[in-house]
Amino acid sequence: MPNAQNKKLKTSAKVLKKSNFVFIGPILLLLGTVGLCCIPLTQTLIAKPTNAEPFKSYKKQSFIAEALIRSGSAVVTLETQRRVFSPGNSGLPPGLLMDPYLQRFFGLQGMGQPRSRIERGQGSGVIFSTDGFVLTNAHVVEKTDRLMIGMSDGRRVPGRVVGQDSLTDLAVIQLEGSGPWPSAPLGDSDKLQVGDWAIAVGNPFGLENTVTLGIISNLNRNVAQLGISGKRLDLIQTDAAINPGNSGGPLLNAEGEVVGINTLVRSGPGAGLGFAIPINRARDIAKQLVERGRASHPMIGVSLSSIPRTRNSSNQFAKSGAMIRYVIPGAPADTGGLKVGDVIFSVGGKAIAEPKDVISAINFHGAGSPLLFNVKRNLQEIELSITPLEMDSLDNF
User: Fold this and answer.
1) Using the 8-state DSSP alphabet, how is residue 53 labeled?
2) Torsion sign over Cα 361, 364, 366, 371
3) CATH no. for residue 215?
4) Tens digit of pLDDT at every position of the chain (397 positions)
């Protein structure tokens, strides 16, 4: 028995050894084959292709930088000086101070006399002509005794005020000295759309050549909506940061063209809203200031608004025209036959879409000669001849 069992164990060992050879051998052979296949494949994935195209990097210069290359050199800093007088305050009766004998007796010479101090200010501007004409705000240079202009290249040159117009808050300055002077291209503010890029350039708080970016938030904002009276402006609204010192600087579009002159910043409630004078209006005023030293403001004496959104006979909203809300008694509009409720749809043969078109047509025509107005009144069309007058003349009515 023991011999038989030993014989059986030896036989099983031989079979097991044979089976190990049969099964383990192919496995090793397979692993070797896979390994040989994997090595060159891994090397192929890691190795750098010899025929790969070079990496194309993103464009580093933005459209803002390109816009500034076109107009940035024409943006200037305005440094103003004006002498401000304040009345003296001695606390003594005025009659006593007016008597020179009493002044000498009591040693009061000079007391109660007006005192003066130098007030310094700063603003921005933009050169719009190679002749050295600078466009800025009227409130920046108002009552200025001395004016220095800081150029973007570091030069400081004196300037003189050619003319200013408080009604539109615009002024033109002439650089004194030899050029050549850089100039910024002027765009077309009538082509602006809400959502267009807006780039404000100026010197807020004395920080020269500051650039901020935003969009055109709205168009044709009347200054009356901002609680400002005595101005004749429809402004561009932007969310590009405009701060004190930006006044008079340019508002650029994406192409680097001047589309507005920065003029107002809203502080307190609603802070962050900036406003600019449309360049088409500024261009017209600047031309008059250069040629005549003053700007013309022809008026007929009415207050206008957009027409209400009411449906007409064809079941469509009436969209074009300007409705008269108020007529100054005795003004040209009154004597010419215009009435409250009339809708102006044509002036001088040109169609009227909104109130600003009436103002533009009157400004283009000028004062002193008749101008035809076509209005709708009680479903009837009426043609009236009205002669605009200068705004100063309306003060008599």
Assistant:
1) P
2) negative
3) 2.40.10.120
4) 555 555 554 555 454 444 444 444 444 334 444 444 444 444 444 445 455 555 555 566 789 999 999 999 999 999 998 887 665 555 556 555 556 665 666 565 555 555 678 888 889 999 999 999 999 999 999 988 899 999 988 889 999 999 999 889 999 999 998 878 999 999 999 999 999 999 999 888 778 788 999 999 999 887 766 767 667 778 999 999 888 888 899 999 999 999 999 987 665 555 568 899 999 999 999 999 999 999 999 999 998 888 876 555 544 445 689 999 999 999 999 999 999 999 999 999 999 998 888 988 998 899 999 999 999 998 899 999 999 999 877 666 6
DSSP, collapsed to helix, strand or coil, labels residue 115 as strand
Dist CA 334 CA 344 (whole Å): 14
- Give the CATH number, domain containing residue 374: 2.30.42.10
The verdict on residue 45 lying in a domain is: no
Is the bond leading into 54 cis (omega within 30 degrees of zero)? no
Q: Which of 249, 265, 295 is the last residue of a domain?
A: 295
Residues 6+ apart with CB under 8 A from 24: none
Please check whether residue 276 is in contact with residue 238, taking contact to mean a CB–CB distance below 8 angstroms: yes
Taking the CB of residue 378, how many other CB atoms lie within 10 A of it? 7
Q: Does residue 239 lie within any of the structural domains?
A: yes
Distance CA 295, CA 41 (A): 82
Query: Residue 53 falls within a domain, yes or no?
Result: no
183 is catalytic: no
> Which residue among 139, 296, 334, 393 is the active-site one?
139
Which of 189, 247, 346, 360 is an active site residue?
Answer: 247
- The tokens for 244 are 């004190």
Same domain, 290 and 346: no
Residues 78 and 138 in one domain: yes
Would residue 365 show up in a list of annotated catalytic residues for this protein? no
Shared-domain flag, residues 339 and 287: no
Residue 236 and residue 259 in contact, taking contact as beta carbons nearer than 8 Å = yes
Check residue 311 and report its DSSP letter.
B
The answer on 127 and 209 residing in a single domain is yes
pTM passes above 0.85: no
Of the candidates 129, 165, 169, 357, the residue annotated as catalytic is 169
